[in-house]
Design goal:
Chain lengths: ~350, ~300
Amino acid sequence: MRCKKLLKYAAGISAFVWVAVLFIFCEARAADIGNCLLCHKYPGLSRIDENGDLKLLFINESVFNNSVHANVKCEGCHPDIKKIPHENVRKVDCMLECHIIEPSSEKKFSHKDVETFLSRSVHSKIDKEGKPKKYPEDYPDCKDCHDNPLYRPLSFFKKVRPGISEIVLGRCRVCHKKDEFIFRFYNHITTRLHAIRSPKNIAEVCAKCHEDPALVARHGLSRKAVSSYAETFHGKAANYLSEGIPDCLNCHVNIGESVHQMLSHKNPESITFKDNKIKSCRMIDCHPHASAKLAKYDVHPEFDKEKSPMEYYFTAFFLILTGGTLLPLAGIMFLDLGRRLFSRKKEDKE
Amino acid sequence: MTAAEEALNAVHGGQTDVEGYFTYVSGVGYIPRDIYKYVKSNPFGDLPRYSVHIVIQHILIFTTFIALAATGIALHYSDLFWAPYVIRLFGGIDTSQLIHRSAAFVMIGASVYHILTIVGSTAQKILKKEFDIRRTQVPLPKDLFDLIHDIKYFLGLTPHRPKMEKFMYKQKIHYLAILWGSFVLISAGTALLFPEHIALLWPFDPAFLQDLARIMHADEAIMALIIIAFWHLSNVHFVPGRFPAQWTVFTGKITREHQLEEHFLEYLRNLSEIPEEREYMRSLLAELGFAEREGSLDETRP
């Protein structure tokens, strides 16, 4: 009898332990239904592909969970993986519908609209007549400009600063019970309230193509689109990660429109069209009192004799002035010093 | 006319050889050109050179110059390895911009203060009929001759330095450079700080003007920094005999040795204006065996 009772207790305890273990396990792997991290959690996981490039396959779970795609399960972007271990995977197609439901339309979420915006932009691979442009491989794909960015939450409690406001989260908890939801919602909203990248980072992304000498030569583009920005005080402040200054997108994207719909400066609808530039200068956070004259300033001079002769000769003038002043002055200074030291030596001897 | 004034006029009027080893000052004696090697000097200064206004202006200018140069050059060379450390020292890019602009306003204030001081004191001197252009920073033909003479001296072609005024050719070059530099930096800086308003001033469409302002501001600042670091500091503070600093910047006084060596003609004025200095020089000459005696101004050293 006693033995039976003990066995009953033991079975009860072990069942409890099993349930507890399973519960903990399920919680920890909630975002990884396919158990992909079974392998991809190892930092050294990598391979050399057919082109000889090293592919790092490690997924840092804590970093991923703080990224804007944290709610997207692995299968959302890699639907072709059906078994573990898997074979070679297809390239990710960002236009796929994923399992997330977009709350305003209650439809499955997709980046499909971006394709429409991009097709209207100067970066489209297809021209107005629907024909492929020359050198289509030069035009950007999603991943040429985008990675999986981390959340950049802002706190607006008392003053604006980077990070999460615990006080605000406390307010959310009054109505919303799931901390997971609150955390994601807060991060999503406050991250979208400002630029996800710093101006320096945006300039670097644009520079990947716009500072590629072969690419810009093929397309007859400005040779130093990004380095000429870096020459200005806007660019210099960007170098120090200042976010109060304009980046490429602020002046090249029509206000209120998708950044994917960037138009040519020859297009009269573009904000970079000569008569429209003033709109970007006049943005409330920039130069609200700017006149049309200000908008005519050349913001991408190349210090090239042919393209920007005034800047070129002006720089040359200051170089000559500096050298022409400094050299004679240095000459007098060294002659003076030489004589002083010579006289002192002579006096010491005497 | 005092004896010193007679001697001064003789030099400027070309009535005597400026190479003259002895300069005769009535009531004092024959002052040999190299007397500066024998005088006693207080390193903090013996003779008046700058008014308290000029001392304040210099302190304001050099402190703001350091802040402006440090924040401005670090911003201009933002891609160099040391620049971020300097910007961090000033509290980040936004704070250093604020410091740069605040320092610029203080420097402009000091420049206005300087102009008011110069205009006011010049007007006062003109009214009192004491104005003498030779004691000002205005370049005169004599400065060119002094420069040639000094180069000859540096090369060992002549035994003594020229007899120069309160402001010698080096200081006049430097002062003109400051006038030019201030004009360039203030005007270009204003164009950079208030682009909307400055753009309206141009009668034509200024595609390149903002860039010219940027080039002017940066290149002139670099030039000013080089000149201050290598020319001003070397010539004024680090020159043998004055190292580690010429304290005139704080005391407003110049050492007797320096005044005699580089501003001999101003020293002659000091002799007529400061009785104690006359007494000191007279006793020194007696001590050195150069007591008052009749003789030629051109007399060579025995």
